[in-house]
Amino acid sequence: MEDKCTMVISGSQLMSYISDFTTLCWFMEPEFQEAVRRLHRVVGNAVVDDRYIVVGTGSTQLYQAALYSLTSPGGPEPVSVVSAAPYYSAYPEETDYLRSRLYKWAGDAYEFDKNGTGPYIEVVNSPNNPDGTLREAVVKNRGDEGKLIHDLAYYWPQYTPIIRPADHDIMTFTFSKSTGHAGSRIGWAVVKDKEVARKMSKFIEMSTLGVSKDSQQRAAKIMGVICDDYKNFKSDELFFEHTRRVMADRWERLRQVVDRNQVFSLPKYPKQYCLFSGELIEPYPGFAWLEAKEEEEEIDSQKVLRGGIKVQGRTGSRFGVAQKYVRVSLLSNEEVFNQFLERLSTINSISNGH
Ligand code: PMP
Predict the structure, then answer these.
(1) What percentage of the chain carries pLDDT values higher than 90?
(2) Domain extent listing, the chain
(3) Is residue 155 in contact with ligand 1, taking CB distance under 6 Å?
(4) What per-residue confidence (pLDDT) applies to 142?
(5) How remote is the CA of residue 10 from the centroid of ligand 1, in Å?
(6) CA of 125 to the centre of ligand 1 (A)
(7) Which residue stretches of the chain have pLDDT < 50?
(8) Ligand 1: centre distance to CA 30 (Å)
(9) Which CATH number fits domain 239-353: 3.90.1150.10, 3.40.50.150, 3.90.245.10, 1.25.40.10?
(10) Could you give the CA distance from residue 307 to residue 47 in angstroms, rounded to a whole number?
(11) Do 67 and 102 touch, CB atoms closer than 8 A?
């Protein structure tokens, strides 16, 4: 992008806590809100008309804000929070970190569907971290006991076909995965209900008294550049086409190595029609979800990678499944990714790692 995304903030700009006291999310920069709505309209991955936008310090803060919003002022028992295994490893940790009396982590959503009782919140992560699948809610709602949070961090065209504009009660997105700017700590929620959005904003007010305006402005700038390029077809290669090509190339090379050494297997993803590109395309998730081919559940694949080739993955048990699974990020820089493939190609048996 060269210097198209460069921005200058002078010493006297963006000093106030307040962005716009007339709106519900008063610490949200109007330029940021506009840029978010525009980006979703360009990509077509979420319905934003007649929806509230809430900005957060990453979608991590918005997850907590959503839990608070859906459970306060609270009843006699904490509300169960569930997600289908394998689930994003931070959900259990974030849910129980403060030992809230409003909500508690209750594990796998399939299990809860069979045996759980009482009010619950299901977190639907689609495409799912760690395994890259497109998902829907799994708990069959009984009356009005269930609420949903859709974590759509990876629902962008470089990772997945855009199969429809998502339209759920609470959807969270993040700058970390849409463009890769994790360090800016910017996320946003698209919310249907005004009261839910108001409570989420209140949570953010209570925890951090707003969200960095410097970061909101930078995010607005970068999203604006991406959208302008789509409007003008000015760039040699547009943003999502470029990033998709990078992901496709990485997956092709990864599959070659994994097929050749026969120690692990990778999930197969069906091609689906993508409304954004107008083509049938394959998902290219941000993680390799590797499963040891040997049958035993006890094989510790994280240990095999670490001990054998000094690659740090995250074990399946952190995601609520067997440790024969391990997740490795594919979103590092090119040099690190190449190193990973080179090392992975030297593993030729599971015992390499022991
Ligand atoms: N949801 C999912 C599924 C993620 O993978 C991540 C980042 N690993 C997050 C939420 C949190 O992202 P952030 O706080 O950077 O927005």
Answers:
(1) 93
(2) 30-231, 239-353
(3) no
(4) 78
(5) 31
(6) 10
(7) 354
(8) 24
(9) 3.90.1150.10
(10) 46
(11) yes
